[in-house]
Amino acid sequence: MGTITINGKKYEFTNEKNVLSIIRKAGIEIPTLCYQPELSVFGACRLCTVEDDRGRCFASCSEEPRDGMVIYTHTERLRKHRKLIVELLLAAHCRDCTTCDKHGKCKLQQLAYQLGVNKVRFENHREEQPVDFSSPSIVRDPNKCVLCGNCVRACSELQGIGVLGFAHRGTDAIVTPAFNRPMSETNCVGCGQCRVVCPTGALTIHHNMTEVWQALGDPNTRVVAQIAPAVRVAVSEAFGLPKGENSIGKIVAALHRMGFDQVYDTIYTADLTIMEESAEFLDRVANGGTLPLMTSCCPAWVKFVENEYPEFKPNISTCRSPQGMFSAVLKEYYRDEANAKGKKTVVVSIMPCTAKKLEAQRPDYRTYGEKDTDVVLTTKELIRMIDAHGINFETLPNEACDMPFGIGSGGGVIFGTTGGVTEAVLRRLTDGQDPNELATIAECGVRGKEGIREFTVPYKGMDVNICVASGLANAREVLESVKSGEKSYHFIEVMACPGGCVMGGGQPINGTKDVRRETRRQGLYNADSDLVIKSPHENPLMDVFYNGPFKDKTHELLHTSHHE
Amino acid sequence: MLDESYYRKTDEIIARYGKEPKALIPVMQDVQAEYRYLPGELLSYIAKQIGITETKAYSVATFYENFSFEAKGKYVIKVCDGTACHVRHSTPVLEALWKELGLSKKKHTTDDMMFTVETVSCLGACGLAPTMMVNDQVHPSMTPEKALALIEELRRNG
Fold first, then answer.
1. How far apart are CA A144 and CA B142, in angstroms?
2. C-alpha to C-alpha distance for B127 and B144, rounded to whole angstroms
3. B7 and chain A: CB distance < 8 Å anywhere?
4. Structure confidence at residue A561 (pLDDT)
5. How far is B54 from chain A (nearest CA, A)?
6. A412 CB contacts (<8 Å, ≥6 apart)?
7. How far lies A411's CA from each of A319, A495, B131, in Å?
8. CB contact under 8 A, B53 and A164
9. Which residue of B has its CA nearest to A161?
10. Separation CA A47–CA A74 (nearest Å)
11. Nearest Cα to A373, choosing from A224, A510, A256?
12. Residue B87 belongs to what domain range?
């Protein structure tokens, strides 16, 4: 509590943990590279340095506010200081900006311009390091690293994994996995949260756009797309439309214009997931199967369990993820020559997620030995492709998905935010389409924002204990409490990214994390409200699926074994 | 793959300090004292045993010049490159040794496992600059010629 004078104006503060947050709250933008509000304070970049009335300089991120403080944020001395920091960082930095994936979005590039660094006087003495393309999710280029440590802290604090760390010292320091191993040989789950907090191009998405352009250019190939729920609320902002706006209609239209033969919405198989997963849940409850049942939609979470808690593998649902189910169904559909019409089929899934790229390569995401998903694109790649194709996204009309797999429920849409899968399961279990029942489900605790949420729902005389977690560090806490016997649940939903898929590693990064999360989450709930069908079992296509040509193949197409 | 005995020895060392994160440095030091280097497999093993990530252990081990993941030679030569030794021409001494032994900034140990050449920041014997240590013995006022003569002598001793 107290008052602090910033640039001659007084501001009240209450419980802000550092001077920097007061400065930002006052609407003054001060550059930082290593500060992330949700991570621990690191104080490495020194760009947030401010000056007090006695001429003392200190990093505002690591200074506790005191009543009566008088500080200045943009004096000539500080300008020079910041400019020199950026110049020194640039000196030891790969400066191939034009070909960098982060071009135009790079914080270092923006700062160099803002601070007027128009010449770098120092030579680069850093030895060139090889770029690591080994992970299908993330590309690591140490030559573009500024050692801010954001990725190191995100991986260990948010995700509780700690794949990346600092190694060596002084001018030799780099951020790397242990023993400088390639990312593919580490415990990396591919979630991409490191890439979300990286201010430069040191950690970027492993692109697969070229494969898609090639498939689109081949007249003998049918290119079929599926679009995940969280993608629809993260594209609009890139084209100057309101943040969090549901632009599924425009995305479908854009993909049609790019030459995709068929465009589908992954919510169709989110519905199938709910049908299968709730059946599995009831079966496990009735027949004494392994409980708690844990969701299998998130590939980073599944990989996390396989890496670190193999004893819980039998708890993970045998359902394939919605991406896996859709691709398997599509490939099966086109195995029938009457549908294939002599063309080869390439399935492209558009995901908010970098871990889905890894999932698509898993041996258990193949049907009859054939890879189900051919290419996974992230939302970021989709945006780049729309741009590259010269499409004026803002003015596109809305178009609907194609048939025969083009209908999904609101329960499927909310898969993209934490708690969504659970909410959809509850809709299925309570057979609810009644507004009051839907409202009761929405208010049972499933929609909260905390990283770990627990609640109990009555179901046919039984109290179902549910836990919803997002962020793998939280998931670890939940698993430890189950392991020790301290907690007992029937159902656990985990999404690896804090906030769920809307905050996935493949999503664009604009504005603050809080705003991104809130607008996208709200966007999905609005999209749910707009849909006539709320519950998966009300989807008319479910009946077609279970009684149509796939009726004897549900196991092969929709399930996998994470255990093998 | 290391022999099982390495892991048993490491278990013994860990038992001296307890399975806690703070035991990392003393355990690494004792393992290195035992084998004259810190085998990477053992570092991963230590990390797991004391409950820290492998990345963290690697981070600490690479921070300190003292820890080495490579097996060291019979004679470990430390050329001082502290300020006093540096201004009194320690660099030619180092370069003469590198040239004679076919070593470099990247390659520290000869293929026959006889010599390891490294630099240190100060041996605390600035009055004798430029200095050099061979295992535990200090050699004062070095010149490239004296260094090469010393190598000859060590080779003769085998």
1. 41
2. 18
3. no
4. 63
5. 6
6. A229, A265, A266, A267, A268, A269, A270, A271, A274, A322, A424, A536
7. 17, 16, 75
8. no
9. B53
10. 11
11. A224
12. 75-157
**DSSP secondary-structure letter at A443?**
I
CA distance B54 to B36: 21
Do residues A510 and A242 lie in contact, with contact meaning Cβ atoms separated by under 8 Å?
Answer: no
pLDDT given at position A461: 85
The two most distant CA atoms of chain B are separated, in Å, by 50
Contact A166/B57, CB-based, under 8 Å? no
Tell whether A132 and A37 lie within a shared domain: no
Q: How far apart are CA A260 and CA A365, in angstroms?
A: 23
Considering the domain architecture, whether residues B51 and B91 belong to the same structural domain is answered as no
Confidence (pTM):
0.92
Q: Is the CB of residue A481 less than 8 Å from the CB of residue A452?
A: no
Please tell me whether residues A382 and A343 are part of one structural domain.
Answer: yes
On the question of pLDDT at A505 being above 70, the answer is yes
A296: region left, alpha or beta (phi > 0 left; psi from -120 to 50 alpha): alpha
Contacts of B54 in chain A (CB under 8 A): 178-179
Q: Residue A495: its pLDDT value, please?
A: 97
What confidence tens digit (pLDDT) does each residue in A339-357 have?
999 999 999 999 999 999 9
* pLDDT over 60 at A229, yes or no: yes
pLDDT higher at A442 or A283: A283
**What's the confidence (pLDDT) of residue B72?**
87
The CATH number of the domain where B54 resides is what?
1.10.10
Q: Smallest CA–CA separation between A124 and chain B, in Å?
A: 18
Hey, what are B38's tokens?
A: 């810190």
Asked if the structure places residue B84 within a domain, the reply is yes
**Contact yes or no for A167 and B59 at CB 8 A:** yes
Q: What is the pLDDT of residue A64?
A: 94
Say how many domains are in chain A.
3
Residues A384 and A279 in one domain: yes
Distance CA B124, CA B135 (A): 16
Establish if A472 belongs to a structural domain. no
